[in-house]
Design brief:
Blueprint: E1 2-9, E2 12-19, H1 21-24, H2 28-36, H3 51-58, H4 61-83, E3 92-97, E4 104-111, E5 116-119, H5 136-149, E6 152-155, E7 165-174, E8 177-190, E9 212-218, E10 232-246, H6 252-256, H7 263-297, E11 298-300, H8 305-326, H9 339-345, H10 350-377, H11 384-396, H12 401-408, H13 411-428
Helix pairs in contact: 2-4, 8-10, 10-13, 11-12, 11-13
């Protein structure tokens, strides 16, 4: 078997493989069986036709063609070993020549993982994160949100007050022209919260049900909707319903409603969780710094468009999942959106968003390749005990930890955790 190799660019490789007819002959017997299943020969059951009879009835060419197909399947991994290629998918196969007693020639076009041409990470060191102390006001904010989740609401026939929940009809315009998607029916919000636009809820205080008010507000310069950012928008708002809010007292009984023994235990748990979250955020910032340094030090082959598109698919799916999680609110007053709503809010199509994320997708692929390269060079790999310990930690987060551990005890999960630990070990190598 002779292999000629040619680089096509964008991580694509082309192989022209020429096989001596003698190497194909061992596959003719299986080829004859496969072909005989597709042909009816009088006097013989399908799959039971002798080779010579089959050759006489349909000729040798179909048998050699099937033998060629079997050869490629059988020898494909050996071809990869000889060429030391690492394709991301099964190749495109083109048969160039197949005929009895002639060389069997075929072409393989493969999309491979890009190669790292150079990488010097010897001088990279980033300061490790220190434990973070949480301020009392952050704990109070969590208690306020939890308190709010246990609120009781009752319809109120009076003017709207601070902290009420109101349902309103909105009509937005700019210089007399109605805004696209600027009409909203029965929009719910809590007066005093400025997540919508600063100053909006203050304009509704004192209004009664069925009363309407017009006013103008300037959108912040950094507003997510770039078409509205910095502009003064005219609002026409009609109050539909007003609900007064009754919040429960924060005491031991309140804490027990969340599964804690008392208020002190609840507060300590919240403090601990906030400190862990703050530390995790700091660790993520350090991780980004390390990745930035590694990207500067690496020279990598061009990345295939197919590989980038697959990474973009993953990123879009991650974004959709994040939007779903954001919709799982414990309190009202926030609009539930889907992915299409999100695209509308940022005034982009999915194609435009993908184009915007393309550079980030390339960076993610490069970082993954760099981590694999460093792990290989430094012989970084977690032990079976470390993998089991990580599975145990994950299982303990579930209510039925024993059942969860059984579900996690699969090769697919172990490989995922192995890669997770490799990433962690490689990143830790650059912390000081």
């Amino acid at each position: 078997m002779e292999i000629k190799r040619q680089k096509l660019g964008h991580s694509q490789e082309q192989l022209i493989v020429e096989v001596n007819p003698e190497e194909l002959k061992p596959f003719l017997s299986q080829a004859a069986f496969n072909v005989s299943l597709e042909h009816k020969i009088p006097g013989f059951r399908q799959g039971k036709v002798p080779f010579e009879i089959l050759k006489e009835k349909i000729g040798l060419s179909p048998l050699w063609q099937e033998a060629g197909t079997l050869f490629i399947k059988a020898e494909y991994n050996k071809i990869l070993e000889k060429t030391k290629l690492n394709p991301i998918d099964y190749p495109k196969i083109e048969i160039l020549n197949v005929a009895p007693d002639q060389p069997f020639i075929f072409r393989l076009t493969l999309i491979c993982l890009p190669k790292i041409l150079s990488l010097d990470y010897s001088n990279i060191k980033i300061e490790s994160a220190e434990p973070i102390k949480v301020e009392e006001k952050e704990i109070e904010k969590i208690f306020k949100n939890l308190q709010f989740s246990k609120r009781k609401e009752s319809i109120a026939d009076r003017p709207a007050q601070l902290s009420d929940r109101v349902e309103v009809d909105l009509f937005l315009s700019f210089k007399g022209v109605p805004l696209e998607d600027g009409q909203v029916k029965n929009f719910s919000l809590f007066l005093g919260e400025d997540y919508y636009i600063p100053g909006f809820s203050e304009n509704l205080i004192g209004l009664r049900p069925n009363e309407t008010k017009t006013f103008s507000l300037k959108y912040p310069e950094d507003h997510i909707d770039k078409k509205l950012a910095g502009k003064t928008i005219d609002f026409k708002v009609k109050i539909n319903n007003i609900y007064s809010i009754d919040l429960p007292p924060v005491n031991d009984e309140f804490a027990q409603g969340f599964g804690f023994k008392n208020l002190e235990e609840m507060k300590n748990r919240i403090k601990d969780n906030l400190e862990k979250e703050a530390l995790a955020k700091k660790e993520q910032e350090i991780e980004i710094k390390i990745f930035d340094e590694l990207l500067k030090k690496a020279e990598i082959e061009e990345i295939s468009d197919i590989l980038i598109d697959r990474e973009l698919d993953k990123m879009i799916e991650e974004l959709k999942n994040a939007i779903e999680r954001e919709n799982d609110y414990s309190s009202g007053g926030k609009m539930v959106i889907n992915f299409d709503d999100y695209l509308k809010s940022i005034k982009k199509t999915e194609r435009e968003l993908r184009d915007e994320l393309r550079t980030k997708a390339e960076e993610r692929i490069k970082i993954s390749l760099i981590i694999q390269e460093i792990a290989q060079r430094e012989k970084i790999s977690p032990s079976p005990e470390e993998i089991e310990e990580e599975i145990k930690k994950i299982a303990e987060l579930e209510k039925d930890s024993k059942k969860a551990r059984e579900q996690l005890n699969t090769e697919a999960v172990k490989n995922y955790i192995k890669n997770l630990l490799i990433n962690r070990k490689v990143i830790d190598r650059f912390k000081k």
